[in-house]
């Protein structure tokens, strides 16, 4: 699909992006230049997408990319997605994976640089696992629990989206309020993540909030950096993996420190996707003579798992969206058919499958799977 785009697409995308201003949440059709350019860009983008669809329809060989999948997708009544819908899905995908990860990566560097003790813990974890030249693998990126907590804490303090929006499907009664169908409800992650009754001392950078002992995010939907419910971000596991992979390389080679006073680094809320405001400067120095330490944690984890006698798999089918991550992690336990329907093959699997089941629960995009141990 990327090879069917041109320079015009890039310019239109940036016009659309610049029009995603926080002001547009309140006055979406205000007659100002950036919003006018946004609307014109949306119309032209749909024209370009329609042209690509028509060109593909004339080809004898069918493409096998995600764009073709959208073209071939059908509703239950057999009708295809319209060019308007396909354009919207493409724009949403680009927005979801573009600035969000970049902004979070920047804040990981900044928060660790202004919290040197936490930086040292991260470096120790990476050095233990990789040393200077250790291979970065898919499995190894799952064995850095402290850095994963760092990412979660960065996303708690600096969520990239200023609000999450849902359209009410049917009248909702809550206490003395009635929210009519067709209305929109909004949640601000930045506000939710700073409720002191849930996250004590909320402005403090404290990755250990998310340890098993503390679990400050145990309250449902208290941590909503990726949204929640049935429409939670389906790319959250990929985003976490991407950030881990980036820093598995960066932190073995470089150490970072702030150039400006720590308090000068602030979020820029003039953008749809929140990122650090400019200038945003850090100084890096090369790291040398890194030694790989003996890894005992993995062995200890395996020994702990072996002591568990049995476990139970619980699935919230209202949350399950059929992403099939669970089947990729533990095909002995989970099966997802072509329609996205999940079947649990074993409610109480053999203990040898515990680690696989835990991975399935951890990487389920919607958090629909829970593992209960005796």
Q: Could you walk me through the main structural features you see in this protein, from its secondary elements to its overall organization?
A:
The protein is an alpha+beta fold and 374 residues long. 41% of the residues lie in helices and 12% in strands. It has three domains: 2-96, no CATH class; 99-286, Orthogonal Bundle (Cytochrome p450); 298-373, 2-Layer Sandwich (Alpha-Beta Plaits). The strands form six sheets. Strands 1-4 form a two-stranded antiparallel sheet. Strands 2-3 form a two-stranded antiparallel sheet. Helix 1 runs antiparallel to helix 3, helix 3 (33-58) packs across helix 5 and helix 6 packs across helix 8 (145-157). The longest helix has 26 residues, at 33-58.
- Domains (count): 3
CATH top level label of the largest domain: Mainly Alpha
Q: How many beta-strand segments?
A: 12
**Taking strands numbered 1, 2, ... along the chain, how are they ordered across the largest sheet?**
1-4
Kindly provide the radius of gyration, computed on alpha-carbon positions and rounded to a whole number of angstroms: 23 Å
| Relevant CATH superfamily of the largest domain | Cytochrome P450
Arithmetic mean of pLDDT? 87
> What is the distance, rounded to the nearest whole angstrom, between the alpha carbons of the first and last residues?
50 Å
Topology-level CATH name of the largest domain: Cytochrome p450
CATH architecture of the largest domain: Orthogonal Bundle
Going by helix content, strand content and strand pairing, the class is alpha+beta
Helicity range:
40-55%
Number of helices: 13
What is the percentage of strand-forming residues?
5-15%
- Major sheet: 2 strands, antiparallel
Which residues sit in consecutive blocks of at least 5 with pLDDT less than 50?
295-307
Q: Judging from the principal axes of the Cα atoms, what is the shape?
A: globular
The sequence of SSEs as H and E is: HHHHHHHHEEEEHHEEEEHEHEEHE
């Amino acid at each position: 699909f990327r090879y069917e785009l041109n320079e015009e697409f890039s310019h239109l995308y940036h016009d659309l992006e610049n029009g995603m201003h926080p002001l547009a949440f309140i006055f979406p059709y205000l007659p100002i230049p950036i919003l006018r350019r946004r609307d014109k860009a949306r119309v032209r983008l749909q024209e370009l997408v329609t042209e690509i669809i028509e060109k593909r329809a004339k080809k004898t060989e069918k493409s096998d990319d995600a764009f073709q999948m959208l073209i071939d997708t059908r509703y239950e009544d057999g009708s295809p997605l319209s060019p308007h819908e396909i354009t919207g899905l493409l724009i949403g995908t680009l927005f979801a994976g573009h600035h969000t990860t970049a902004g979070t990566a920047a804040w990981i560097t900044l928060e660790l640089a202004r919290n040197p003790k936490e930086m040292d813990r991260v470096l120790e974890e990476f050095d233990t696992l990789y040393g200077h030249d250790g291979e970065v693998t898919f499995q190894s990126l799952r064995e850095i629990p402290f850095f994963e907590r760092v990412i979660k804490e960065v996303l708690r303090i600096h969520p990239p989206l200023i609000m999450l929006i849902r359209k009410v499907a049917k009248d909702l009664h809550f206490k003395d309020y009635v929210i009519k169908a067709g209305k929109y409800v909004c949640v601000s992650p930045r506000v939710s993540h700073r409720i002191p009754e849930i996250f004590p001392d909320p402005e403090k950078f404290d990755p250990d909030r998310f340890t098993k002992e503390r679990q400050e995010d145990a309250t449902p939907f208290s941590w909503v950096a990726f949204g929640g419910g049935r429409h939670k971000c389906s790319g959250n596991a990929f985003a976490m993996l991407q950030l881990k992979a980036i820093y598995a390389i960066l932190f073995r080679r470089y150490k970072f420190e702030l150039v400006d006073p720590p308090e000068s680094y602030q979020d820029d809320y003039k953008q749809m996707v929140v990122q650090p405001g400019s200038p945003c400067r850090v100084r890096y120095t090369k790291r040398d003579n890194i030694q790989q330490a003996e890894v005992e944690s993995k062995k200890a984890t395996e020994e702990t798992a072996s002591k568990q006698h049995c476990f139970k798999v619980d699935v919230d089918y209202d949350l399950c969206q059929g992403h099939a991550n669970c089947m990729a992690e533990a095909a002995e336990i989970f099966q997802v058919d072509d329609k996205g329907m999940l079947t649990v093959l074993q409610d109480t699997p053999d203990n040898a499958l515990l680690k696989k089941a835990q991975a399935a629960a951890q990487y389920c995009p919607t958090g629909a799977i829970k593992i209960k141990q005796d």
